[in-house]
Design a protein that fits this description.
Blueprint lengths: L2 H18 L4 H18 L8 E6 L1 H5 L3 E4 L4 E4 L4 E4 L6 E5 L5 H7 L3 E8 L2 E7 L8 E6 L5 E7 L13 E2 L6 E3 L7 E6 L4 E7 L12 E7 L2 E6 L5 E6 L5 E6 L7 E7 L6 E8 L5 E8 L1
Antiparallel strand pairs: 1-20, 2-3, 3-4, 4-5, 6-7, 7-8, 8-9, 10-11, 11-12, 12-13, 14-15, 15-16, 16-17, 18-19, 19-20
Length: 293
Amino acid sequence: MDKFAFIKHLMGFLRLLGKKTPFLLPLTVLVLALSGVFELATAADRPAEVDKTILLNADSWEHSQDMTTDGKYYYFTCKQGIIKTELDSKTVLMRNADALPDKFVEDYGSAHIGGISYRDGKLYCAVEDSKVWQHPLILVYSAYTLEYTGEYYELDPARHTKGLPWVCVDPETGIIYCAARDNATTLMRYDTKAKQYIDDLVLVNSDPDFNIHKIQGCEIYGGVLYAATNDSTQAVYTVDIADGTAEKLFDRNLFSGSEGEGLTILETDDGAFIHAMDMSPIFLSAYVRHYAK
């Protein structure tokens, strides 16, 4: 059994245990307790949250990379899978637990789904041959079925020397945005119609040393790109895609050892606007945190 099949079966087994037996109860109680300690320890430093959703055990694994929305549902990625949920982030409506097609696993060494972005019924997913970084890919999936559509784009490994952690599609133009993993000072733009890069967008800030480090996921809304990072403060940034003006919006200031993940943008009735993900240090709990505009 290969590692993808093993992970798929393991996650299915853990979900079954959680629903059908009390065996995971002690672990769940422990994870909740530890997560509560982490939250209390950072409460004074974290920005105000409209609300937050905690995911535990197998659910945290399925919410471990990035998220996007079509305005009605959320879509989440993990390293090998995609799920579709209600806007509560918890109610899973559809699951593709083994979303990497064999062709890409066998021919390209694809092993990791990262950032995800929605446009016109399609999900654009960043895919890497993790830690090899020779085949940065964008695979396109149906938002209705979560199945691979047959559409893909192979990007230039010379430009993506440490993989392709995320991609973001402009809902107006269909242009794909991506960047270097470390200390990005520009955003790369890829035209899927022409299947080629177009001019880079230079980040403009009053600080000459300004850069955005370890972007995990982005979303474009109203001409602004919102970027969630796993830098030292798990900061969220904005970039005006018209002129490149870039600013730090806020620091998430998560507990030490936590991992800042991606985000999406959706105006909800409770006043939330930015919905950002993170994994706790024990990686058995994950959060979707909802912030006001």
